[in-house]
Amino acid sequence: MPTHDEQNEALIRAWNDRVGGALRDVQVCVTGGAGFIGGHLCDALVSLGARVTILDDLSNSDTRHVGALIDRAPEHVRFIQGSILDPGALGEAMDGVSRVFHLAALGSVPKSVEQPERTWLVNATGTMRVLKAAQQAGATRVIYSASSSAYGNNPTLPKREDMAPEPESPYAAAKFAGESLCRSWAKCYGVDTVCLRYFNIFGTRQAADSAYAAVIPAFIKRWVHGQAPTIFGEGGQTRDFTHVSNAVLANLLGAANEIPLGGEVVNIGAGVKTSVNELASMIQSRMGIDGLNPEHAPERIGEVRDSVADISRAKALIGYEPITDLEDGLATTVDWYDAALRDEREGAA
Ligand SMILES: NC(=O)c1ccc[n+]([C@@H]2O[C@H](COP(=O)([O-])OP(=O)(O)OC[C@H]3O[C@@H](n4cnc5c(N)ncnc54)[C@H](O)[C@@H]3O)[C@@H](O)[C@H]2O)c1
């Protein structure tokens, strides 16, 4: 099995093969760059020679990863702690940039049900402010992190971009509004945009400790602590679990593409349907856990039943094809969390 460093080098080669020198010395802004996907994207951008300004208010992250990135490439990384709702911080972050990767958002569906106005403010109004700031700075493209939650509970599979959107939570509604704003900025203000509808992105450094934790780190954390994980519902619900390196690739392709993308929406998934029960047993066997089978709790409001992406439009428009499959992505992710969480447990003991 290759080491973590060898795997990172292989990923950098894969990204480089697909975008070459297109981002070398290009000035970019990454909103939400201290977060999970944003952090991985910043790693890739720095490795490909881009000059990166990160704007993040640290409401769901900290500076550990950003700090390490600055230590690694001080000439290439600038960090601004601020909100996408603050025009001053946006203006500073976007000064001189030509590409904007917009990832900052409140990411939790259950929290959006509790706090719909806050969710709308950050995820919809915030996206408009990012677009306005990008326009004022003369940026040529905004690459928007959209969400497959736009499809709602429509039973048709796989999900295709020409299906009518049916957002079922304030989170989904606000993320979908962000797509409409991106399209309108491409049509009315000459800022080219593309919307990447992610399907359940997973990987290292995803927060494992919130009540709304993504399912993979949440499962691993419970098992590391000798506890059975909880599955909401009976576990037959399916998702298109997509390794973060694929989401990063989609962003890089969205930025490097020379052809106007006109606000188009593309699905970014692996294109494979996996049930939560199947996922749990893959993790359990990778960790070598005997017993402690998942327990079931009532399903959560606003969550969709089944989801898998048709990724043909992303392939046609930006040349996207996944570079890491579920098995490989899960192996590195499980091993990374297993080690990190065991260290944390021993440190706390
Ligand atoms: N993780 C997934 O599976 C997934 C799926 C679909 C869509 N997305 C979208 O991808 C993007 C990144 O998600 P993630 O999983 O990395 O989440 P994350 O919470 O790890 O990252 C989001 C970052 O945005 C920052 N942020 C929040 N509000 C902000 C504000 N007002 N101003 C500046 N920064 C702010 C947070 O501090 C955090 O660092 C989000 O837009 C999310 O909606 C993620």
Report on the structure:
The chain contains twelve helices and 13 strands. With 349 residues, it is α/β, with parallel strands linked by helices. It has a domain at 4-200 and 244-272 and 309-325: 3-Layer(aba) Sandwich (Rossmann fold). The strands form four sheets. It has a seven-stranded parallel beta sheet, with helices on both faces. A two-stranded parallel ribbon has the order 7-10. The protein has a two-stranded parallel ribbon with strand order 8-13. Helix 7 links the parallel strand 5 (141-147) and strand 6. Helix 4 (87-94) crosses helix 6 (116-137), helix 8 crosses helix 12 and helix 10 crosses helix 12 (326-348). The longest helix is centred in the last third of the chain and has 23 residues, at 326-348. The site of nicotinamide-adenine-dinucleotide (NAD) has 30 residues, from helix 2, strand 2, helix 6 and strand 5.
Distance between the termini: 31 Å
CATH fold descriptor of the domain at 4-200 and 244-272 and 309-325:
Rossmann fold
CATH architecture of the domain at 4-200 and 244-272 and 309-325: 3-Layer(aba) Sandwich
List the strand order in the largest sheet: 3-2-1-4-5-6-11
Give the total of beta strands. Answer: 13
Total helical segments: 12
Q: In CATH, what is the class of the domain at 4-200 and 244-272 and 309-325?
A: Alpha Beta
What sort of overall outline do the alpha carbons produce when their principal axes are compared?
A: globular
| CA radius of gyration | 19 Å
Low-confidence spans: pLDDT under 50, at least 5 residues?
none
Mean pLDDT across all amino acids: 94
SS content category: alpha/beta
